Amino acid sequence: MSDFENRVAIVTGAAQGIGRAIAEKLDAGGATVVVADLNAEGASETAGTLQRGQAVEVDVSSPESVDAMVAKVLEDNGKIDVLVNNAAIVPFVPWEDVDLEHWRKIIDTNLTGTYLCTRAAWKSMREAGYGRIVNIASNTFLAGTPNMNAYVSAKGGVVGFTRALATEVGADGITVNAVAPGLTASDGVLAGPHAEAFDFVQSLQAIPRRGETSDIAPTVAFLASDRASYVTGELLRVNGGMLT
């Protein structure tokens, strides 16, 4: 039996990058995968490449949009077994330019979005007595990466959220874990200034090569599977052994 046979999984921010790699990994394991993304066209394209893919447009910073997404998934599939909170904005903004508008935008998507999606999906998981929640954090939280203050703060919040929630929902058969990727060659990273940091980051790693999206997905799939049924409240770093 495959790890995810008869399982329904939502992956937010799955139109590209790490989210897409996660969606592909869960699909390969037998899951029905809901590709949830603000980019509706990209979500449909990704879902179309999967064996059992479904696309849903969602703005994770909007309670109404998140509730509509979860209602749609439950209407179409009857349950939600796995939620991967991956959707995020990855900025490059010096501290002196971090105004309140920028701060709120990043926090609303990267932290509040994780809360909203989890809160909406958790109810059906509790009723079913089963759930796997995996939150995508970031190695930037551990490194204190410059020019990303709001992002680092949000991802630190994701780590705290993960640990606190795990203590409250474990009795309901729900595990909550987080994965902290290092610098990863996703579409967004390669298109921005972060792409210039690979040589430096690799010099700090035990494994001296750049991280790929395919390096992150297997760890997420493990935590989303029954093989990790006794693992909860954890932060797993997937960064090539970067010393921080």
Which structural category fits the helices and strands? alpha/beta
What is the helix tally?
A: 9
Along the chain, the helix and strand elements come as EHEHEHEHEHHEHHHE
In CATH's first tier, which class applies? Alpha Beta
CATH architecture: 3-Layer(aba) Sandwich
Task: Indicate the radius of gyration in whole angstroms.
Answer: 17 Å
Structural domains: how many: 1
- Which sequence of strands runs across the widest sheet? 3-2-1-4-5-6-7
Strand content: 15-25%
Average pLDDT rating = 94
Explain what the structure shows.
This protein has a seven-stranded parallel beta sheet with strand order 3-2-1-4-5-6-7, sandwiched between helices. It has one domain: 3-Layer(aba) Sandwich (Rossmann fold), CATH 3.40.50.720. The protein is α/β, with parallel strands linked by helices. Helix 1 crosses helix 9, helix 3 packs parallel to helix 4 and helix 4 runs parallel beside helix 6. It is globular, with a radius of gyration of 17 Å. The mean pLDDT is 94.
Topology:
Elements: E1 8-12, H1 17-28, E2 32-37, H2 40-48, E3 53-57, H3 63-77, E4 82-85, H4 100-128, E5 131-136, H5 139-143, H6 149-169, E6 174-181, H7 187-190, H8 198-203, H9 213-224, E7 235-238
Parallel strand pairs: 1-2, 1-4, 2-3, 4-5, 5-6, 6-7
Helix pairs in contact: 1-9, 3-4, 4-6
Short key terms for the protein model shown above:
Rossmann fold; alpha/beta; 46% helix; 7 strands; seven-stranded parallel sheet; 244 residues
